[in-house]
Protein: Glyoxylate reductase
Organism: Melanomma pulvis-pyrius CBS 109.77
Amino acid sequence: MTRAKVLLLGEIEHAHESWNALSNLAELTNPRARTRAEFLQQCIDGKLDGVLAIYRTFASVDITGRFDEELVGVLPTTVRFICHNGAGYDQIDVHACTRRGIKVSNTPTAVDDATADVNMFLILGALRRFNTSMTALREGKWRGSRPPPLGHDPEGKTLGILGMGGIGRNLRKKAAAFSMRIVYHNRNRLSEELAEGAEYVSFEELLRISDVISLNLPLNKETRHKISTHEFSLMKKGVVIVNTARGAVIDEAALVEALDSGHVASVGLDVYEDEPTVHPGLIANPHVILVPHMGTWTVETQTAMEEWNIANVRSALETGALRSVVPEQLV
Ligand SMILES: O=CC(=O)O
């Protein structure tokens, strides 16, 4: 009997033992392709036939490009599982996968603490408006030629969390320790137990009443540019915005305008609309703290994510089902 194959797209950096242990269950293969064109051709030529599960990383998009309709359409018919190492799986067209009978998983939970930590770091940094003086110091100008802008305390401010999944709920807990009042909006209202004191409000209400708005929702067709010119106009003057989700949830050009006009006071970003390109208006604006997509970039979290993703592959091989199938495929 031929053994099932698992294709590795990207690298295993930490969980080598768990990865190697999969070889008891399946043949582990790497693609030779270095470009999307080569990868598509390998698929078309039948070079990857027999692959049952694909383990892919966020960075492997540099080789294959997005798992869009075109790519999913040429995958070998043997492929039944795509295991994505990351919480956000916007690089994958899940509907195209569903149509082909392919199940997709991500790594929720594993990312929550590290991402919410960066979230809190950005909230504090943007509220305190540290960016100008930190830059001045590096330029040998101590606090700059003028006194730096005075910051604000988080205590007593209203934090609006848009998207109360694992990261949003983790952030709630951390922000509560800074005595912030927490409101949230989510596709579905949470049970009292899950909301843990956060107050449910409509999307518009959240925009109107929040001093700080944190974006913690996934990127998909419905959420692309969820925050644009009209939404900025509803926000309080002087609002602080933080995004650790996906850049394209905000219309970046509209954000730059809202910052330039002073309507948005300061911003903390870990994600960008067109990574690794960052809008020049964001780079030029001293009231923006920029982190180059490092929400999960810790030894502990990277290891936990790999272990989680390998567990998905293992579960697929052993039981024919994934451990954490994406919500769109749960229905
Ligand atoms: O961006 C990080 C992730 O999606 O896990």
Observations:
- DSSP finds 14 helices and twelve strands in the chain.
